[in-house]
Design brief:
By secondary structure, the chain is an alpha/beta fold. It folds into two domains: about 40-135, no CATH class; about 140-435, Alpha-Beta Barrel (TIM Barrel). The chain has 19 helices and eight strands. It has an eight-stranded parallel beta sheet with strand order 1-2-3-4-5-6-7-8. Strand 5 (about 290-295), helix 14 (about 315-320) and strand 6 (about 325-330) form a beta-alpha-beta unit. Helix 12 crosses helix 13 (about 270-290). It starts with a helix and ends with a helix.
Amino acid sequence: MERTEVFRGIRDSIDGMRIVDNHEHLSKPFIKEADYEMDLPMFLATGYLHGDLVSSGMEPLPMNRMRNRSGKEGAEILEEETLARWKKLYPHIDNVRNTSYYRYRLIALHDLYGLEEEDIDDDNWKTVSDNIQQKTKNHLKWCLEILDKMNIYRAILDISILGGVPGTRLIKDERLVQAVRMDGFISGSPQAAKHFTDNRIHSMDDYLSALDTAFEKVIEAGAVGIKSGLAYRRIISYDKVAKSDAERVFTRMPKNIGLGVFSTTATKEQKMLEDFMMHEVCKRCAKHKLPFQIHTGIQAGNYNTLTNSKPTHLNNLFQEYPDVTFDIFHGGYPYLQEAGLMAKYFPNVYIDGCWLAHISPAAYKRGLDEWLEIVPANKIFAWGGDHGILEHSYASLMLAKDLIAEVLANKVNDGYFSEKIARSVAKKILGENAIKVYKF
């Protein structure tokens, strides 16, 4: 069989599969009263591409459209804002046309917004921008259409960096489920505890009791997992710390500390407290059988410390808590091999390709190709969009489907396994694995 025929057969079969989107920050798309209307500059420069634009030399560009602009005068003001943003944005577009964060968005512009030319330029941008504004005026109807088009079975949302009980502002749709962040709790913030309980916090025992209450409440509200993104501000190495040592730090902390997660670094003492609390969160994940999603690898945006986020830093947690299912995000990129080996070593560790497809298609293919040779197929989650804008996730999924089909087709053509096995693997990594692990 021709190589292209094998690819096409696998790719077509993927289109009929149930997709589990393992990680998203989507909230506004599914809140009826949200301000979600977009234009092309907002579509392009919101999210990951903004980091590339800043890296290329652009000054950070505010993307929020002004609200409550009604009538002819309001429309004219919005049009002026769009034009002003485009003029600031366009000179930098040529610098990033080569990056994946730009290239994959063209998929959505072609499929969803009628871009007929190969790329955006100063002649056609306005037509596309008008199409985006028109479609997103009724954003809820439009986003539900996109969700249908993506054939999403479940999408795991991480929509509150503050943590707290999953809210009710989202529309009721069984496809939308939530993982809850515990980073505020881990950072030792009594203010974080208030997102879960009104109990007064005077001691470490009170704080741990509040953590118990938090788990009970999020489970009752239907949370499917726990999440930590502390790799954005500290090394993800969590030592065993005695409760007495952690309590000594906790009692000296100002009670109005807010959320420590927002600080850029963790002091030596704060790290001690956070290390203790991370172990406490793991214990409760084990008790309640909640999967634990942990950010590893590249951090979004600019100006961070990449080596803080190596998956191997988590080795002791994987060993200490065999009853916790650890979902290791982003393939650990650029530490793809290390992340794969963690999933190979430990029965309780799963490797997750969320975000990775549009970070670098080449890295995604390289990682998946190797993981399929070293990691059991039931231990791989292939895709999650990791966006706040659904159209970006649509583009990422279309890209990921092509990349997965290409990797699997190459395995078939190289005689590594049959096309039947390739299709079975695709079904597992795109949905069935997550359905089992997250008990959908």
